[in-house]
Amino acid sequence: MGSADRIGPAAMGGPSRAFPAMVLIVSGLVMLAGGGWAELAPRSFAAFTGFAYHPHFVHDAGAFSIGIGVTLLLAAVWADVVAVVLAGFLAGNSLHAVNHAIDLEAGGHGWDPWVLGMGSLVVLAALLVRMRGLGWVAGEVATTVTSAALAPFVRQKTILLTSFRRDGRPVGAPVSVVVDGDRAYVRSPGEGGKIKRIRNNPVVEIAPCTGSGRATGPAVRMSARLLDGAEFRHAGRLLARKYPMLHGVLVPLAHRLGRARFGRTAHLALTPLGDRPPTGEPPAHPGTESRTAR
């Protein structure tokens, strides 16, 4: 499997990243398995552990184990500590509320599930507020940006990348982006339309946009350059760190499955052009054709 197609923790970098991530993932899966066992088969779980059987206490042990498991798994892929803790607690406390509802005959109070459920709603609200403040990006982003033109894109989840046909007509596509220093990186199928257009004319424009490609801010003119070697691998690692599931797993897998049709993965470095007159500058354009692509 080529470096562009590496999936999961291996895409994150050297041993200092990969080994802790693997420990977190394995530990999280073990906790999820144990928690699921306690929730679904409490009598069997109690017999295995050698403790006296009480359905509610075994169920709660399962809920807390699942909460810990979710926290461990998210810690392997999310960079924001607050989001990780809130999401893990939300999972465990929500199951705790469900357990109190289904175990009322074993004890407790009728208001227990409601109080715990309200607590989960508050935690969910806090998590949504936190994620919105992060631009819905919980992965790792650059801490040093040397280009003022790229600063607004550091936590931007999706950008509209506009490339130009030979006759100057613009074609836009929503893509993920990661910023590193004085440049940004994006990924695309190597034989896709945008790569063919960029090979002919490296001048592109990027603008913040929604997931569907609707621009939400002004465009910045950039120069695109196809990468190879160490810089290609560096771009892939940065994308995987910012988008752990999307570009650590899903997009590399999709590109690998579609390689026969769309070619190998291409990584692009985008640098701001500013006021420099680039070669092959496209004409002014009143509108942009839209393409949904990653």
TrEMBL record:
It comes from Nonomuraea rubra. It comes from the Bacteria. Keywords: Membrane, Oxidoreductase, Transmembrane, Transmembrane helix. One of its GO terms (cellular component) is cytosol. InterPro entries: F420H2_bilvrd_red/Heme_oxyg, PPOX_F420-dep_Rv2061_put, Split_barrel_FMN-bd. The keyword Methyltransferase does not apply. The chain crosses the membrane at residues 18-40, 61-91, 111-129. PANTHER family: HEME OXYGENASE HI_0854-RELATED (PTHR35176), PYRIDOXAMINE 5'-PHOSPHATE OXIDASE FAMILY PROTEIN (PTHR35176:SF11). This is PPOX class probable F420-dependent enzyme. GO terms for molecular function: coenzyme F420 binding; oxidoreductase activity, acting on the CH-CH group of donors. Residues 269-294 are annotated as: Disordered.
